[in-house]
Pyridoxamine 5'-phosphate oxidase family protein (Streptomyces hokutonensis), 296 residues
Amino acid sequence: MQTYHAGSRAVQDRAGVRDLADHVGQIIGQGIKPVAAAFLELQPLLILGAADPTTDRVWASPLTGPPGFVRATGPHQISVTGGTRPPDPLTPALTDARDLPVGTIALDPRTRRRMRVDGRLRSTARGFAIEAERVFSNCPKYIQRRESYETVADRVPAAARRGRELTSAQAEFIAAADTFFLATVHEHGADASHRGGNSGFVQAVSSRELTWPDYPGNAMFLSLGNLLADPRAGLLFLDWTTGTTLQLTGEARTEFDEEGERRVRFTLTEVVECAAAIPLRWSAPEYSPANPHPGR
């Protein structure tokens, strides 16, 4: 798979970072190295992004399990034991899947490390396997440190609450968030990425529209490049204490101002809220020193 498609190239050129992107892009490989395999086996959480082939909607979904539920089973493959829970909107797409383009990100708040594996998913008897096409790690920028977590064994997911607009409580949930995950797609695959900042960095400006600043990152512009080529997107917000999830699907576009600053505007198609969706309870966050003030 090529490192960058035309969408990413267009954003890189507008930002004037094509040469830097070419240098940084050398981190992207197809193989899962031993250090990456060891990292994956320590994680209790994996975020998966994909488009549901039936509805064409893009979602970002959380997968959880005891460490080892995600593991490398070869230099180009990872396996996941279990899957999404029934209220999750991606569950139908992952059932009996064959060659489904997916993007995944494993983020460890304890160490501020993150790793992405994009590829093709197929269902297995115990969960699913992903044939890796792109494997790479990102810097710790904008990741909030959470020192520890516990698994709440008796936490039971509530019935999903679906809607086409945000409630006032959901808008407050978003405004309080210091982290969310972004799923995007392109002609040849899918990607899942992380966005972080101090609480208030992402805002619901109406019941159907969100906006957030695109902080300086690794200059690859994989997500923004995908959105330029295909505006479909999925957002996942987590309550790191209660396990409640808020999943949004819709379309997003990037706005550039005269100073070259970027802001992403997301228009909602559907929202799915599920209380106690995941069994993890994390400690309080220590904000990343890289986080700008939300007003900037």
Observations:
- Residues 6-282 form a domain with the Pnp Oxidase; Chain A fold (CATH 2.30.110.10).
- The longest strand covers residues 262-274.
